[in-house]
């Protein structure tokens, strides 16, 4: 049976005496399907909003109001390392499984390659702390309490040969108050969106590749967190008043994506649909998570409750858990296990300055001929011959294809000359025949 799970973290110690929950637990592992249940937990952690990140092997938790990140091994179920940084950490995100990005109180982003220990950082581009981060292996987006959003090129930041201090590709500055959350679209093309939420009671949809503002939505309350639909058709918003709202980017009867209708981009849209509310006393929504198929929405609240929403019917369904402390982070795990040839054995602590670049990882699964190469003394001769032959074939194919292309062009030019000559010959012969027979040429 397909299972789906999620990870939550809390801030500080429990608010009330509750014997069902241990006082020193800070991170929880939950199973969502088939039955909602807490499977395990990790101790000694207190994280603020946007302060948790997870890979398939490790959990990274930025400790509230500290310059410390706790690293936990998921296989061992315990803390593996405590990493200190020169600045207090306000936010975390992962670029793939290999680079952890930390947003600091001084307005800079630190990139840490967790398998090598290499550490690089951006200049102090923001005037206030980086409150949220989003990224992939090509772009990093940083949002700050100074209301600005910067777009960075990840290859430039991680370049080994860079001689100048990196600068943002562009700055998005339409908001008028602190940025509370950022989410990126799922597209792999050159056109993709990101959505930003701000304390100015707006969310903005951007094309972060070009920096174009696609749509501005005016909201009835302050948005604190976002979750993007798996197909990028809509965004779910968690509000300070404890409610949840769905904002669709295009109308259901539209056959085109209205985000790219330039006539609509300059006009803010007032959200007037009723929001979704829970039963009982409301409390601010600090984090959201959406199931893989988009049919289930989870929200974590200041009260400690984790709430289940039915997105097709747009209603409150159930309260899944009460963690007795503010639920600040909620990370959904894909039900499909990614097939990877390597995995990190341990996390390498970040190192400042230049040094030896060593990648520490474990090969897993069947590695075929590589296994024979590793166990042999030197390289087996048949593997070397095969490698040399593949290079020769590639070079031959390249030169052959290049030569074929040149011949094709020459043939086309020659046939054009031949056809022109034939047409001229036909016209000349027609004139000669007409004059010889004493006729009149038409």
From TrEMBL:
GO biological-process terms attached to the record: DNA-templated DNA replication; rRNA processing
Keywords: Nucleus, Repeat, rRNA processing, WD repeat
Listed GO CC annotations: nuclear pre-replicative complex; rixosome complex
rRNA processing in keyword set: yes
Repeat (WD) residue spans along the chain: 123-154, 172-216
Family: Belongs to the WD repeat IPI3/WDR18 family.
This protein's name: Pre-rRNA-processing protein IPI3
Organism, as annotated: Cadophora malorum
């Amino acid at each position: 049976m397909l299972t789906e799970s999620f990870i939550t973290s809390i801030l500080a110690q429990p608010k009330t005496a509750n014997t069902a929950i241990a006082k020193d637990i800070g991170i929880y592992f939950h199973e969502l399907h088939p039955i909602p249940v807490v499977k395990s937990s990790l101790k000694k952690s207190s994280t603020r909003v946007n302060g948790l990140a997870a890979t398939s092997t490790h959990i990274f938790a930025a400790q509230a109001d500290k310059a410390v990140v706790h690293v936990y091994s998921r296989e061992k179920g315990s803390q593996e390392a405590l990493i200190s940084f020169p600045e207090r950490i306000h936010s975390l995100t992962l670029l793939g499984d290999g680079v952890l990005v930390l947003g600091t109180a001084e307005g800079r982003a630190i990139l840490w390659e967790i398998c090598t220990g290499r550490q690089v950082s951006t200049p102090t581009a923001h005037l206030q702390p980086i409150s949220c981060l989003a990224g992939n292996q090509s772009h990093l987006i940083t949002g700050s309490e100074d209301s600005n959003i910067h777009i960075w090129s990840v290859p430039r930041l991680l370049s080994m040969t860079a001689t100048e201090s990196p600068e943002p590709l562009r700055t998005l500055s339409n908001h008028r108050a602190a940025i509370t959350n950022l989410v990126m679209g799922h597209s792999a093309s050159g056109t993709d969106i990101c959505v930003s939420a701000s304390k100015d009671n707006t969310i903005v949809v951007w094309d972060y590749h070009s920096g174009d503002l696609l749509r501005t939505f005016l909201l009835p309350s302050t948005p604190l967190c976002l979750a993007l639909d798996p197909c990028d058709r809509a965004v779910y918003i968690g509000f300070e008043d404890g409610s949840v709202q769905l904002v669709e980017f295009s109308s259901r009867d539209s056959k085109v994506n209205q985000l790219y209708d330039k006539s609509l981009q300059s006009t803010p849209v007032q959200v007037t649909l009723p929001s979704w509310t829970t039963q009982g006393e409301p409390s601010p929504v600090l984090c959201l998570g959406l199931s893989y198929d988009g049919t289930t929405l989870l929200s974590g609240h200041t009260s400690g409750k984790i709430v289940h929403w039915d997105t097709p019917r747009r209603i409150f369904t159930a309260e899944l858990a009460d963690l007795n402390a503010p639920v600040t982070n909620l990370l959904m795990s894909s039900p499909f296990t990614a097939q990877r040839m390597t995995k990190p054995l341990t996390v390498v602590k970040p190192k400042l300055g230049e040094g030896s670049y060593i990648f520490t990882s474990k090969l897993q699964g069947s590695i075929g001929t590589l296994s024979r190469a590793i166990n042999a003394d030197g390289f087996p001769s048949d593997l070397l011959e095969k490698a040399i032959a593949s290079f020769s074939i590639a070079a031959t194919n390249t030169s052959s294809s290049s030569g074929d292309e040149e011949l094709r062009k020459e043939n086309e030019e020659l046939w054009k000359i031949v056809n022109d000559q034939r047409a001229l010959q036909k016209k000349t012969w027609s004139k000669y025949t007409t004059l010889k027979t004493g006729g009149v040429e038409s």
